[in-house]
Please model this.
Amino acid sequence: MASSLQNLSEYNPGNIPAGDAMLIGVVVSAWNPAITHALYDGCLSTLLQHGVKEENIFTIQVPGSFELPVGARMLSHKHSQLDAVICLGCVIKGETKHDEYINSSVASGLTSLSIAYNKPFVFGVLTPDNEQQAMDRAGGKYGNKGVEAAVTALRMAALRKELTKEKGRIGF
Ligand code: DLZ
Model:
């Protein structure tokens, strides 16, 4: 498993597109707040480090991870110029299968939104077996998934800009 071998938040900052012209939405789940707030801290500091202006980061909170897709959609409607929307949550396995239902619903919801809007809706959701695994990935020994989500958003937003920018017309 990759996470047992490396800190997944390690990356080369020189390879990340500049965020100075980007508008980014962030949706944060209120369940397991110590974890999701740590994810948000990592995400926010990464966006700022790569030049995204504070006034161009639009953050909302939703009650739980299940609400991330609809929160992301509502945020996208309010700010239609967003280049990417990052969704942060933590669903810890319990006695029942709630985690499986929530996680697969969030994953398919964000996939559908990405395709429908032709923009990245980033899955920054931890799916751990227990709280320790969550802490290890929210600023602990395996890095911070919020950092990775921010890097993914910048990369995908830049790719979208590149692929959708107007081409010079040839001929007529
Ligand atoms: C209900 C629930 C449970 C049991 N566990 C979590 C969790 O670990 N992480 C999380 O983000 N949300 C959890 N929720 C709440 C659901 O995501 C959702 O908010 C409620 O079912 C209401 O739709």
